[in-house]
Task: structure prediction
Amino acid sequence: MTQVSPTPYTVVVIVPTGVGAAIGGYAGDALPVVRAIAQVADRVITHPNVLNGANLYWPLPNVSYVEGYGLDQFAAGQWGLRPVHRNRIGLLLDQGIEPELRDRHLQAADATRATLGLEIADYIVTDAPLGVELRTAASGATWGTIRQPDSLLRGAETLIKQLGVEAIAVVARFPDDLDSPALAAYRQGKGVDPLAGAEAVVSHLIVRQFQVPCAHAPALSPLPLDPTISPRSAAEELGYTFLPCVLAGLSRAPHFIPLSSLPLQPSSSPQATDIWTNQVDAVIVPATACGGSAVLSFAQSSTALITVQENTTRMQVPAEALGLEAIAVSSYLEAIGVLAAHRAGISPTALSTNLSPLQPHKG
Result:
């Protein structure tokens, strides 16, 4: 007979964006990991690039789709998460998208309304081209900038104030670089996603300014057919747009509850279903990418930190270098076993042959 947990067992799954993660650095290739974890946890919290698979996605009722900046604020205890049944989504399109490519994205949005029943408000086009620019750090990690952030924020504000949306999907025109070695490597399941870092900048701006769920889908010219494409990148070869997974994820993304708003706004009064950082039991992260804001915040609490060796990245920031106590595992399969033991109140060392005798304290 399965024992019922006294409180919902909650796990956060983090795979930093644009760092070349071996698992989670491609087109939704960490989704199987989250699907499996969702079977041993009551609640799973993760960020869009872990779940986004372009035209592919998977409905997971106990998984929260939380943008990266919002996840950082949640981990720091500044924001709570409020699960919802549905969101009214606003669609914000970059003026720099060509008419035909814009129509492709609008057709994708209409398709989700007709086939998935999503509620999407009328779309808005930014009042200036956003001007996305891509950058690569010395480590090989990717990032980027936009030349017109004010136009992005004005469009988001209009969606919120005039159309009453509760979540925002952004489609920005990204530079085409068909001959890029980085793109060729990514399509072969190697290297770093050349777009991911810049995508994070777009969503961070909106979430930081307006505290609403947001995710981004890049607009790009279709790539020529390559029969040798890696399965890890293949989801992005299926159509003209990556928008469907973003809209599906945002449709039930939890709302942000800033801690500072609780005494001031009756609509933000605490609810029993709200999730706060002190309710997180475990966080799972690639072993070499422990320097992010969310991981450092969780490390200051009793949350168990599980680091996965197999998920290599371009970063070199292991837990031990930061003085963090972590449970090191070789794979996500092993991590799932640790979660099952942790949830049952069993020390993982009891499941191995390396159980040492107790020693006297030498304090």
In short: The mean pLDDT is 91. The first strand starts at residue 10 and ends at 13. The chain has one domain: 10-268. The CA atoms of residues 291 and 322 lie 8 Å apart.
